[in-house]
Amino acid sequence: MFDKQRPVRHPGMVVNNCLRKSQKTTMKQQIVLTDDDLLARGNDRYVFQHPHDSRLLIKTVIPGIAKFNSKLREVYRDLKECKPRNETDSLFMQKIEGLVETNKGPGQVIVKEQDEQGGIAKTLYQLAQDNELDSLKLQKLNVFLAWFVGTDVIINSLHCKNIVYAWDSARHEYRFKVIDGFGDKTFFQLSKLSTAIRDKNKIKCLRRMLRDLNRLQ
Questions:
Q1: Cβ distance 163 to 127 under 8 Å?
Q2: What is the layout of strands, in order, in the sheet containing 96-102?
Q3: Is the dihedral of CA 33, 36, 42, 44 positive or negative?
Q4: How many C-beta atoms lie closer than 10 Å to residue 98's C-beta?
Q5: Coil, strand, or helix at residue 116?
Q6: Alpha-carbon distance 165 to 40, whole Å?
Q7: Which residues contact 184 (CB under 8 A, 6 or more apart)?
């Protein structure tokens, strides 16, 4: 007896089937974000409360902004670059849990930085505007900036709105943390190739941030 032959499937059929399965999976995993979930709007990103987890936020790129595709690439770059090199780094950096597909496009899932009462942590910009930068906070800011200068993590954008004053419930203390601006945005990624260039960029970021902070007070 001859074995019954299976019908030959064209490679294109296999690819199309895989794409359909992938699309179905994506649709199942898509998170729907609404205006009720919107917490803030930055220069190029929306910040949403994660609808299924109160501890998390979702950041998406604002549609229609200038350099949209470039900002979208940053979403993926942040995931790669926002990685602590050691335990100290993890104290001063936001934590990105991963990426998720939403009805607003790809979103970063971020651990929410909060104050002691569970509210959204204030930015350095807000603290300065509200005249809340007392001697203790300024001391903690100096500790943060000392870490920023010394860390090997590439942070090429530092300003008063991407530094937050967050409560560490495990250590029962407040700490300034950076919540975006990770990685080198230039085409040749020179900060990765040269320590001198990385340090120069850091000093430039630091001076600009301190200048803006002085103007706020």
A1: no
A2: 38-41, 45-49, 56-61, 105-111, 96-102
A3: positive
A4: 9
A5: coil
A6: 17
A7: 154, 156, 190, 191, 192
Token code pair at residue 13: 């059929």
Q: Give the predicted TM-score (pTM) of the model.
A: 0.80
- Picking from 152, 140, 24, 165, the residue whose alpha carbon sits closest to that of residue 89 is 152
Strand 38-41 with 45-49, pairing: antiparallel
Instruction: Give pLDDT tens digits along the chain (217 positions).
Output: 444 444 444 444 433 443 344 344 333 479 999 999 999 998 899 999 999 999 999 999 999 999 999 899 888 888 888 999 999 999 999 999 999 999 999 999 999 999 999 999 999 999 999 999 999 999 999 999 999 999 999 898 899 999 999 999 999 999 999 998 887 766 556 566 567 777 888 889 999 999 999 998 7
Q: Is 62 left (phi over 0), alpha (psi -120 to 50) or beta?
A: beta
Q: Is 26 helix (H, G, I), strand (E, B) or coil?
A: helix
